[in-house]
Design goal:
With 242 residues, this protein is mainly alpha-helical. The chain has helices at 18-46, 49-74, 78-82, 97-110, 127-132, 164-189, 192-196, 203-228, and strands at residues 15-16, 85-89, 134-138, 149-150, 231-232, 235-236. The chain folds into two domains: 15-150, no CATH class; 164-236. Helices cover 57% and strands 7% of the residues. The strands form three sheets. The protein has a two-stranded antiparallel sheet. Strands 2-3 form a two-stranded antiparallel sheet. A two-stranded antiparallel ribbon has the order 5-6.
């Protein structure tokens, strides 16, 4: 089930949905793992510390420059390209190299949480997109299906919609309660030894931690999306009488 509302087809840029961007991320991850595995295999075969050290430096440098160089010069990584995506500067064209570097750093620091605001933005932007004033768009619109993108969302003056500040405050309250409840639930489910030290965590504790992290990520995105659309109690959009 797609939690993003369907958007009618109109002229203008097509902004990639999260599912399409996730595909690009996974392709880049596969490429990265493959390169690292190949480098380790070569290093093990060479059996030479100097060669292994030089190869390690080369691979790390290539991985750090992979996204900024390709995004700034070609409009996207290989994952973007094979997912029919392109990173576009708000001023038009590709983002600059320094901006591409900043984009990668912010995305690396925030991780998946950079994407939780997609539904609350006009152009399906993540945090690293907003900070660097960029968007991820469909590269070739002729090859894209409607389920892969959204068009720009408009937020016209609507007397039935709560003011933006109220939606933000209420959404923040829901998120705070969710984090508190989630923390209590996780602590109540994990073993006492794991709570005191990670070295005493069992496999079951690890599963609980992963499930809780994924669930919290999903709930955060859902609450932000519903809150901005005026669908949360306390900042709900007024019902119109027929």
């Amino acid at each position: 089930m797609n939690i993003e509302a369907a958007t009618p087809t109109t002229s203008g840029p097509r902004y990639a949905r999260f599912s399409r961007r996730l595909r690009g991320i996974m392709l880049d991850w596969i490429i990265t793992v493959s390169v690292m595995a190949g480098a380790l295999l070569i290093a093990a075969s060479a059996r030479n510390d100097d060669v292994s050290r030089a190869l390690g430096i080369l691979v790390v440098t290539a991985m750090l420059l992979y996204e900024p160089v390709l995004v700034s010069f070609t409009g996207g990584t290989l994952g973007h390209y094979f997912s029919n995506l392109r990173v576009v500067d708000d001023r038009g064209g590709n983002v600059g190299f320094l901006k591409a570097c900043a984009r990668m750093v912010v995305k690396g620091l925030l991780g998946w949480y950079s994407f939780v605001i997609l539904m609350a933005t006009r152009r399906n932007q993540a945090v690293h997109d907003l900070i660097t004033r960029s968007t991820v768009q469909i590269r070739d619109q002729a090859k894209a299906s409607p389920g892969q993108y959204v068009t720009e969302r408009t937020d016209p003056a609507d007397p039935s919609m709560p003011p933006w500040w109220r939606r933000i405050v209420v959404t923040g309250g829901y998120l705070l309660l969710t984090y508190i409840a989630g923390g209590v639930a996780v602590l109540g489910s994990m073993s006492r030894g794991c709570i005191k030290s990670e070295s005493f965590c069992s496999a079951a504790d690890g599963i609980i931690n992963v499930v809780a992290s994924v669930g919290l990520l999903f709930l955060t995105a859902l609450i932000i999306g519903l809150g901005w659309k005026g669908k949360l109690f306390g900042a709900r959009r007024a019902r119109r009488d027929a």
